[in-house]
Specification:
With 293 residues, this protein is an alpha/beta fold. It contains 13 helices and five strands.
């Protein structure tokens, strides 16, 4: 990326298409980076350029431009131009740095502001049509296996809790051997959900790879396009890849993953209301047994 473009992408309130390019630039192929650089340098010009003419100017193909747009989470070139033309805002810029002299009040404001921005960013990136496909696949599955390790392993357990509450036949695995062993038992009637913010957690990637080989529908929740886990996924649900330069970005990753899973749970219930409301009532009743009066 040119120094000019690198500096340009460091604003606090970046417009949406710029934010996506910044977040995914390091994962783009050389030909895709050429497209990204051209768009950054000629954003006003591409609005009137059909895809064939843009491909000719850059020295690439229309198919490569479409793949580039999709790798950023857009449906295609037309949607990318929609964002370029309207310069829609998305609060995905870098958070103010944490200072050793910050008071608790200031720290609270910075962290809450950052986490809110992560949720807003995920809301913009998450593709509605893919969420619908995920809901349909999970609703009709005979068995649902959830995979994750480390921080994402804890989210897999949270998803297990969410899905069991509505009566879905699911299990969660974060042990390396249990992940691939359980994946090997899946069939075309089942769903595997892999959760990995980086998309590079080797045990989770191996599990969804095996699940894919067995014919299961694979859904992944990840923050990065073109990461290894997406190679074996039928449905990719992107979360924010927003990071910080202080401490860890893991809490933000977990927040965005939980938001996606909550959407899936509620989507399943609302689209199969009669089937699942009874299960929810059963869960609420049984929870009373585990609470002291």
């Amino acid at each position: 990326m040119s120094e000019k473009n690198s500096n340009f992408l460091k604003g606090v309130d970046e417009i949406e298409y710029l934010a996506r390019i910044r977040n995914h630039y390091h994962l783009l192929s050389d030909s895709e980076k050429k497209i990204a650089d051209y768009i950054l340098d000629n954003k006003d010009n591409i609005l009137n350029l059909p895809i064939s003419m843009l491909a000719e100017k850059i020295g690439t193909s229309a198919a490569t431009i479409i793949r580039f747009c999709q790798s950023l989470g857009f449906k295609g070139y037309t949607e990318l131009k929609f964002y370029v033309e309207r310069e829609l805002l998305s609060p995905v810029g870098e958070i103010e740095k944490i200072d050793k002299n910050d008071s608790i009040k200031v720290l609270k404001q910075k962290i809450f502001k950052f986490n809110k921005e992560v949720i807003d960013d995920t809301l913009m990136i998450l593709d509605d049509s893919k969420v619908e496909k995920a809901i349909d696949a999970i609703s009709g599955a005979q068995k649902i296996n959830l995979y994750g390790e480390g921080g994402s392993g804890s989210i897999a357990l949270s998803a297990l809790n969410l899905f069991l509450q509505i009566g879905l036949p699911c299990s969660a695995f974060n042990d390396a051997f249990l992940q691939i062993t359980s994946a090997a038992q899946l069939t075309k009637n089942d769903v595997a959900i892999g959760i990995s913010h980086s998309g590079r957690a080797i045990n989770t990637v191996d599990a969804v790879k095996v699940a894919k080989q067995k014919g299961a529908t694979v859904i992944c929740i990840t923050g990065y396009a073109n990461s290894p886990i997406t190679e074996y996924s039928d449905i990719v649900l992107y979360t924010s890849s927003k990071t910080t330069h202080f401490l860890s970005d893991l809490p933000a990753a977990r927040i965005s993953e939980l938001c996606v899973l909550s959407i899936l749970q509620l989507g399943i219930v609302t689209r199969n209301y009669e089937n699942f409301t009874g299960n929810i009532k059963k869960s609420k009743e049984i929870f009373k047994m585990k609470r002291l009066d």
